[in-house]
Amino acid sequence: MSNTTRKKVLLMGKSGSGKTSMRSVIFSNYTARDTRRLGATIDVEQSAVRFLGGLVLNLWDCGGQSAFVDNYLSSQRDTIFSNVAVLIYVFDITSTDWEADLAYFEDILLALRTNSEDAGVWVLVNKMDLVDKEDPKRKKYGERKDDLLAVDQRVRKEVEEDGKGNVKGVLRCFPTSIWDESLYKAWSSIIHTLIPNINLITSHLTYLRNLNQAVEAVLFEAETFLVIAKSGSPLDCDTNDLDEVEVNKGAKGLDQQRFEKISEIVKGFRKICQRNHEQYQGFEAKFDGCTVVLEPLTRNTYILIVSSDPRIETGALLFNIHQAQNHMSEFGARSVLERKCGLCRHNSELKYDVKGDDDPSVSAWDDAPF
């Protein structure tokens, strides 16, 4: 039986801000150079992407020309802004009409807050590559972010004072460019917040990491190669908040953009494979300082396991991944599991039923210790 969760995501921004380019890079395997041939979005283009946990992302790419925006805010207001899980709004950092851009954003944010009070708002200040050389400390981005947070506070106050709702969704800002890994970082953070049972998935990754005596276990979506979740500490946490295993195994010294760089590299390599009529399967390697395996975990995810123990062989990592595949696949495909693992049986957040699980004599499939 299907256990599908559908989330409506609005992708909006003034015409030319780069929203369709970033959508094409993330979801259609375009390179940044490929996006030069894209035309402007006409009205609303809808697409659907399936992720782990039965999540289907309904992406509404809304044209940014003034006539379309005016229509969204008037005759299409309820259709566009109702039942929204996330608004992704894209700004062009090089815009010469910032005040007008802010006014448009404020109107859209007000429409969203009065129709979908729980919606999260992600603001991507795009084309950072065009200003970073002249502004290496990103003072301009900091000023733009302050303006956006002020707009958010103003809208919240207006909505709540008018009795139109109690705004719960938060606003987050990211600097982005289609020419580097910052785009993957922003979109991974967005998708991470939408995945059902994300805490349970994270606990499974942490258990698998510990079973392999690894530094980390990271889950990627198969098509977009966005990071869905990781073991141990939260996905976007500061290095000071790493868990004990990560600290002891040297995760503090790892590149903070490593996941996004892996996403970019793998997608580029996979595109080369396609041109050569080869199918990308995965990656495994043993170096002086670590052992790395990147392998399919479910039909729509890949898992990366990194071990710093020189005694660990790739075959051992692959064996444990293959043992976990069937169980992890159930999260996205079924509402009734055949048998919970030890983690599932002791997790109060689990929303699935398990046949015969009320019988304490029935052991979990892996007998996970606690």
UniProtKB/TrEMBL annotation:
Any GO BP annotation: cellular response to starvation
Pfam families: Gtr1_RagA
GO molecular function, one term: GTP binding
Regions that span the bilayer: none
Cellular component terms (Gene Ontology): fungal-type vacuole membrane; Gtr1-Gtr2 GTPase complex; nucleus
Keywords: GTP-binding, Nucleotide-binding
Family to which this protein belongs: Belongs to the GTR/RAG GTP-binding protein family.
Role of this protein: GTPase involved in activation of the TORC1 signaling pathway, which promotes growth and represses autophagy in nutrient-rich conditions.
Subunit structure: Component of the GSE complex.
UniProt name for this protein: GTP-binding protein
Organism: Kwoniella shandongensis
